[in-house]
Amino acid sequence: MAKVNIKIEGVPFEVEAGLTILEAAKACGFEIPSLCAFNHGECSKGSCRVCLVEATGARGLVASCVYPVAEGMEIKISSPKATAARRTSVELLLSNHNKNCQQCDKNGKCELLHVAKVTGARDDMYVGEQTAVTVDRLTPSIVRDTSKCVLCGRCVERCKNAHGTGVLGFEKRGFNTIVAPAENRSFANSPCILCGQCVSVCPTGALMEVSEIDKVDAAMKAGKYVVVQTAPAVRAALGEEFDMPVGTLVTGKMVAALKRLGFKKVFDTNFGADLTIMEEATELLSRVKNGGTLPMITSCSPGWVNYCEYYYGDLIPHLSSCKSPHEMFGAILKSYYCEKNGIDPKDMFVVSIMPCTAKKYEKERPELSVNGLKDVDAVLTTRELGKLIKRSGINFAKLPDEQFDNDIVGEYTGAGVIFGTTGGVMEAALRTAAYKLTGKELEKVELTAVRGFEGIKEASYNLGGTEVKVAVAHGMKNAKVLLDQIREGKSPYLFIEIMGCPGGCVAGGGQPYVKPCFLPNEDADILDTFKAKRAAALYQEDESKELRVSHKNPQIVELYESFLGEPNSHKAHELLHTTYKAKERFN
Amino acid sequence: MAHLQEAAVKKINEICDRYVDETTPLMMILSDIQKEYGYIPLEVQELVSERTGISVAEIYGVVTFYSFFSLKPKGKYVIGCCLGTACYVKGAQQIIDKFSELIGIKPGETSEDGLFTLDALRCIGACGIAPAVTINGKVYPKLTVDSVPKVVAEYREMEANN
After folding, report:
1. How many CB atoms lie within 10 A of CB A337?
2. Which residues of chain A are within 8 Å of residue B42 when distances are taken between CB atoms?
3. Which chain A residues touch B45 with a CB distance below 8 Å?
4. pLDDT of A328
5. Which of A75, A290, A399, A420 fits a 20 to 30 Å CA distance from A379?
6. Which residues of B fall below an 8 Å CB-CB distance to A?
7. Could you give the CA distance from residue A89 to residue A51 in angstroms, rounded to a whole number?
8. Nearest beta carbon to residue B64 from set A172, A181, A585
9. pTM of the predicted model, to two decimals?
């Protein structure tokens, strides 16, 4: 790589040619205040003018996020001209911003407030007209409030990069510009899959999850039997809400916190994941045996299910009919668990802690209820759980490690844990499918071919004479490739795992924000590495478990023996399976 | 999209086919559709999105960015008043206000009888004849407020005689 010599604040450095001034400065240990710039240009480059610096050879000040370094360039970050200009840029942004910061859910994680502080921006320097405001609260998942939008374009780029669908775009022009789905529609009547990737990159409170903390409070107050379950990916990220390093595994502390928050029982959704594997592996083998629709595709990710219904309605028969793990668990809690413990299912309130915003929508699906009772009553994101814990005065770092409840349900295996990262469901399913096909356990349960963050992963296993060719995709842009293959009748696979979010649930839209400006102790490339760090935590927990295959979970075995009969039985279908239907994109 | 008539689907597909070899075909496609139908509703944008792989949100963004494109059907006569700097300095605001008053619509609207649409345009590059107005492509140079009623009457008469 060619190098160039530059000076920053008078200090000479040798940096890679082709870097922007912002990147070069970062590599040399300088943090130029910047707002819209994000993740290798995943934004509408150079739009906010916050990162202005002086650079020799340039006319006037330059936006360091787009201006490339050149041989001999001298860069001044702290010159009076540059500091004044950056402050003015922020003041102008603030002049068209809804500054109700105290009520804003992004408070504490707001990058605009951060640069306002860093640049010393003064309040109300420019008072005048405000752009007309849209607040969209129609979906159960995401709130869009344009009064907080700084038009950085991160959400627009992320939606396009992750899914290729690009539900969000810039509309109108000049002062009237807004970021919105076409026609400034609600997400509710646009083909938005509600994955929340836009929320996870938004620098301000313009895109937020719909909070359900109030719902949980109300259920507690009403004296309901409130139980909670936590998805696998939550334990790999929750620590970040309490300034722990990215990828810290906090299973024990998370359980301890939930017990202190007043939940009657604290369960692990992994029990549901193990149950899903039993149902899904059985469904797959029965499709193979009976000439059913193949390849079969996983249905755990509600973002992916939404996408399928909007864009590939014709491929719905390929979707596994299995409910997602937390919905299965909810259904079992309100039937089996209530029955065994003499609880009226109407009194039970099931809360799921999920790394996901689409799960909030999923739980509202009418088909995900049994006898008029919803399987799951409220879904909180990992971030909301962080807020709940902070609000309750719990010092998370000082909590002891405690164990999940597992009286008759809740026990889980390593197979359930890895559901939280791309390839995990596939690996877990294959561990059990291999046993079902060959009657023998795999010698090595780690199936590394389906691990990692390649967009599309393929693997082929010979299981008892059956050649099982599988594929894993995450992010709809990657999934589309596999789906088009199916449409053209050219798919060579038997089984496909698809996750809505790039990286799977560890990088879900409900996970703690990864904002480099708030993570001074993480490496500069944290946006490239956080997924792997969180996934590593899950693989670590998988390895630590004695039981690593779902079919050996003793409580799952007991559940089938004493309640469900066998996988895919009539009763299992009633409680654990669902249906889908194609949806119009702009309704 | 199901609401589009078969002939329209065929025509729009044909327009998209004209530019399959272009790397950035969107402006050309939209421009041809605008000329053909006088407007580009969401259903049409969906079809263009499917053909080009460009998201509906992005197409909608382009359609709403350029005043040349329209989301709603335009009137039989489209009055474009240039409000670029030169025209503005020469009194274009008073001229568009006069059109507004005489026809009873605001800029961007279409009269109820479908006869007129009034558009405020950014610089149309005719500063030498400012203030400039175009009606269905015919240019009216150096217009004055007093001459606006005559221009409107001209089209009303033309319509009455048809």
Report:
1. 25
2. 182-183, 586
3. 182
4. 98
5. A399
6. 42, 45-46, 54-61, 64-65
7. 9
8. A172
9. 0.93
- Residue pair A581/A316 in contact by the 8 Å Cβ criterion: yes
Domain ranges of chain A: 3-95, 131-209, 214-576
- Between the two ends of chain B, the Cα-to-Cα distance in Å is 36
* Alpha carbon distance A317, A320 (integer Å): 8
Q: What is the ipTM of this complex?
A: 0.90
Burial class (CB within 10 angstroms; exposed 0-12, middle 13-18, buried 19+) of A391: exposed
- Residue B66: which of B122, B138, B135, B133 has the closest Cα? B122
> Measured between CA atoms, how close is B129 to chain A, in angstroms?
27
Helices (H), A312-364: 325-332, 338-341, 358-362
- A385: Cβ–Cβ under 8 A, 6 or more apart, which residues? A230, A234, A238, A241, A254, A257, A258, A353
Given pLDDT bands bounded at 50, 70 and 90, which one contains residue B43? very high
- Architecture of the domain spanning A3-95: Roll (3.10)
Query: Within a 13 Å sphere around the CA of A371, how many CA atoms are in the beta-carbon half?
Result: 8
Instruction: Read off the pLDDT of each residue in B76-104 and give the average, rounded to a whole number.
Output: 96
- Residues with Cβ < 8 Å from A515, sequence gap 6 or more? A109, A111, A203
Report whether A75 contacts A32 (CB < 8 A).
no
Tell me the CB-side half-sphere exposure of residue A488, using CA atoms within 13 A: 9
Residue boundaries of the structural domains of chain B: 6-65, 77-161
Q: How confident is the model at residue B2 (pLDDT cuts 50, 70, 90)?
A: low
The residue to which tokens 């922007």 are assigned: A20
CB contact under 8 A, B59 and A182: yes
- Cα(A32)–Cα(B108) distance, rounded to whole angstroms? 43
CATH 1.10.10.60 fits A131-209, yes or no: no
SS3 state of residue A467: strand
**Phi, psi (deg, nearest 5) at residue A167:** -70, -30
pLDDT in tens, A370-414: 989 999 999 999 999 999 999 999 999 999 999 999 999 999 999
Distance from CA of B102 to the nearest CA of A (A): 28
pLDDT averaged over chain B? Answer: 93
Q: Write the DSSP symbol of residue A513.
A: P
Q: What fold characterizes domain A214-576?
A: Rossmann fold (3.40.50)
Cα–Cα distances in angstroms (integers) from residue A130 to residues A95, A97, A127, A489, in the given order: 8, 8, 9, 53
Query: Is residue B4 very low, low, confident or very high in pLDDT (cuts 50, 70, 90)?
Result: confident
Report CA-CA distances (Å) from A62 to A41, A57, A75, A268, A522: 16, 10, 10, 51, 28
A564 vs A400: CA distance, rounded Å? 36
Q: pLDDT for A465-487, tens place per residue?
A: 888 999 999 999 999 999 999 99
For residue A156, the distance in angstroms to the closest alpha carbon of chain B comes to: 9
Asked if residues A432 and A549 have their Cβ atoms less than 8 Å apart, the reply is: yes
Segments of chain A with pLDDT less than 50: none
**Preceding amide of B141 cis, omega within 30:** no
The phi, psi pair for A209, rounded to 5°, reads -75, 160
Superfamily of domain B77-161 in CATH is Glutaredoxin (3.40.30.10)
C-alpha span between A425 and A499 (Å, rounded): 9
Token pair 């402006």 in the structure block, residue? B27
Cβ pair B57:A180 closer than 8 A: yes
CB contact under 8 A, A171 and B45: no
> Hey, is B94 helix, strand or coil?
helix
Distance CA A170, CA A445 (A): 47
Residue positions of A annotated with a catalytic role: 280, 283, 300, 320, 359, 362, 367, 505
